[in-house]
Amino acid sequence: MTLQEINKAYNRIIGSLDSKELKNAFDSIQSLISGSREISFQDKLNELQDTYKYMLRYRIEGAKDPMQEQIYNRIQTSSYELADRIRNKALAIESPLAFYSRRRSLQVQPNVTFENLHLQLSKHYATGNRAEYDAMLIVLFNKIWVSDPFTIEEAAVIKNILFDNELPFTAGCQIVSALMLGLQAAFDPEKLMLLFDAANHENEEIKVRVLISILLTLYVYRKRTALYPQITNRLDALSETPGFTKAIRTITLRFILARETEKITRKLQNEIIPEMMKLSPKISNKINLKDITPEQLGEEMNPEWENIFADSSLGKKMEEFSELQQEGADVMHSTFVHLKSFPFFRELSNWLLPFTTEHSSFGDRFNQNNGEKLMLDSMTLAAFMCNSDKYSLYFSMMQLPEEAKKMMMNQFDSQATEMIQQNKEELISKRGKLEAITGQYIQDLYRFFKIYPGHLDFNDIFTMPLDFHNLSILRPYISDEESLSSIAEFYLRKNYFSDALTIFNQLAETNQDSDILFQKIGYCKQMNDDLQGALDAYLRADLLNPGSKWVIRRIAGCYRSLKEPEEALKYYRRYEKLNPDNLSITISIGHCYLELRNYSEALKCFYKVDYLDGNNKAWRPIAWCSFLTGKYDQARNYYKKILSNQPNTQDLLNAGHTEWALQNIKGAIEFYRQAVEKENRDFYKFQEEFNQDIPDLIVAGIEDTEISLMMDQLRYVLSDSL
User: Fold this and answer.
1) Phi, psi of 35 (to 5 degrees)
2) What is the DSSP letter of 385?
3) Closest listed residue to residue 566, CA positions, set 522, 535, 597
C-alpha cells in the first residue's frame, strides 16, 4: 500500500468506529493488515472479532450480561488502539512526516533513555552548563513527542522529571508541550493521564499549558475519550480544583479570539499601515519633524495631530486596534511572522519554549552587558507578547549594527523596565494571570501550527472550531448559565452567529421567559439568512416584552423581506406610535404601501419625509410613485433632480420610462442608452431590468408592440455609437 492508501484506510476505520459500526471497522482493519503486510496484528484482530461475536450472540439469545457495556467499550477502545498501532508501524519506515523522520533519527540512539536524560538535565543545570542543558531538553522533548504508547514505568520517569523542583519550570513546560503534540499524532491514555497528573503542578505556567493540552486532546478524540472511565474520573477530580470552570471558559474564549488573527493581520496590512503611509508626509509637514529637539517634547499631544487623525479614517481604526490589543487579540502576529528565520527556530521544540533569560542562545552577554540584561528582563515582563515573539525580537535586535544596538540598549534602563512592569500589572489586573498565560501559549501554538517551516506535517488545530463547551465529556463542567452566556456573547460580538445560536438555543431550553434571549436567537438566525426562524424568535420576544422598539422594527423588517408587506405595515405602524418622528420608519411604511400598490398612501409618506428631512432620501420613491399614479410631469421634475446627483442605472431607466409616457421618444431612447452605458454596454443585463417594468409601462399607456420597436431602435443607436 502507498502512504496515501494507508492513511485512507486508517481514516475509514476511525470513521466506522466513531459511528459504532464495528463490523465495518474490523473489515477495514483486515484490509489494512493485508495491504500493509503487518500480519503480526492478525491475532489481535481475530481476538477482538471473536469477543464481539460472542457478545452479539449472547445479546441475540436474550441473555443479560451486566458487564456487556464494559466489554463493548473495551472492544471499541482496543480497536482504536489496534488501528493506531498498525498505521504507525506501516508508516514508520517510509513516511516523510516530521513525526516519523524524527522517530527514525532517535532510534539510532538506543542509549538515550528517559532516566538518562533526567540525570543529564539535572547535572548540566546544576553545573551551569546551559548549552548542554538546552540540548538535552530538546532531546527529551523529541523523545516524548515521537514515543510509542508509554509503559507505566516510562510514565513514572516522565512524572519524576516533571515534578523535579531542582529543574527550572521550562522543563515541565516542554514536557507538557511534547505530550500534547504526541497526543495529536496518536492517542495514548498513559500520556493523557500524565497530563492530568501535571494539572496539580504548583507552577502556574505549567498548569495552564496542561489544561490547554487536555482540552485539545479531548477535542481531537471526542468520539473515543468517553470510552475510558479513568478519563471521566480524572476530569471529575480535576473539576474540584478552584477556578476549573473559569479556566475552561477562559481557554475557550481565547481560542475563539485566535480565529480573528488572520482578519486582524489583513486589516493591518490592507488598511491601517497603508493609511499610516498616506498620512506620514502630512504629519511630517504639519509638525516639521526635522526641527523637533528633546527640549520641545512634552507630555501634551499637539492638537493639530489630533485633527489630522480625526480627518482620516485612521483614528477610528487605531482606536479599534487598541481595543483589540486590550482584549488580548493577537495583534503582533503580522509584525513577527517574517522574523522566524533565525537558527533558534529551526528546532521544533523552541517554538513552544517559554521565554527565559537563562537560555543558552543569549550566551554570556547576559552577564556582561547591563543594557542587554535590562532589555531581557524587560522582555520577560512584557505580557502583551508571546514567548516566540520575544525570542524573535531579541534575535532581531542582535542583528542591528553595533552603534544602533548600543543606542537601543541604553533605552532599556530601569525606567523602561519599571514602565513594562507597570504595563504587565495593568494587563494582568484587567485580564488576570490565567488569561495572560493562556493568551501567550495559544499565540505560541498559533505561530507553530501556521508558520513553523514544517507545519504542513501537523494537523492544524486552528482549522477546527475548538468549541470545548459542546463536548459531551466537558459539558457537566461548563454548562452553567454564566459560562455559556459569556461564550455566546463573545461569539455574537465577533459575528460567529452559528456558534452563538447553538448556545442561545441551549439556554432557551431552560429559560423560556427571557425576551433578550429570544431577541439574540432571532438576530443570529437573521444574520444567517433564516428569516422565518428569526421572525418566529422575534415574535416570541415581542410576546414577552411588547414595548421593545428594536424587536418591533425587526419583526416588520422580516415580514417585509418575506414579501408580506401587509403584516410588515402593522408593525411599522406600531413602531411609529412609539417613535412618531422617525423618518426612516415613515419611508419603510411608504415602501409597504408601494408594495401593496397603494400609491396614494405611499406618496403621502414620501412627501412627509421630503418636507421634513430636506435631503434627497425621498426623491426616488416620490418620482416612481408619481410615474405609477400618472403624474408624469411631477415624476420628470424629480428625475431631473435625481439625475443631477450621481444617478444609477435604475434612475436612468425610470427617467426613460417617464419620458416615454410623456411621448418624448427621443428623450426616452437617450436615457435608455445611458442606462446601457452604465452597465458597461451589457444590453442583456439592461433588458432584464427593463422587462421587469413592462407591466407598469403598459399601465402607463405604452402599446405592447411599441416595446419591441423601442428595443430594436435602442440596439441601432448603440451599434451606431460604436
Assistant:
1) -65, -35
2) S
3) 597
Give every CB contact of residue 428 below 8 A, 6+ residues apart in sequence: 383, 436
- Cβ atoms of 366 and 372 within 8 Å: the answer is yes
- Residue 379 CA to residue 390 CA, distance in Å, equals 6
Mean pLDDT of all residues in 307-317: 57
Residue 10 to residue 29: CA distance in whole angstroms: 8
Q: How far apart are CA 141 and CA 160, in angstroms?
A: 15
Instruction: Answer whether 265's CB lies under 8 Å from 446's CB.
Output: no
Q: How many residues in the chain?
A: 722
pTM: 0.85
Compute the distance between CA of residue 571 and CA of residue 604 in angstroms, rounded to an integer: 19
pLDDT tens-digit profile of 127-152? Answer: 999 999 999 999 999 999 999 999 99
Task: Annotate 49-107 with DSSP letters as a single string.
Answer: HHHHHHHHHHHHTT---TTHHHHHHHHHHHHHHHHHHHHHHHHTTT--SHHHHHHHHHH
* CB contact at 8 A, 434 and 250: yes
Asked if residue 345 has pLDDT above 70, the reply is yes
State the sign of the Cα–Cα–Cα–Cα dihedral 224, 226, 228, 234: positive
Instruction: Reply yes or no on whether the pLDDT at 317 is more than 90.
Output: no
Distance, in Å, from the CA atom of 683 to the CA atom of 693, rounded to the nearest integer, reads 16
The three cell numbers of residue 105 are 533519527
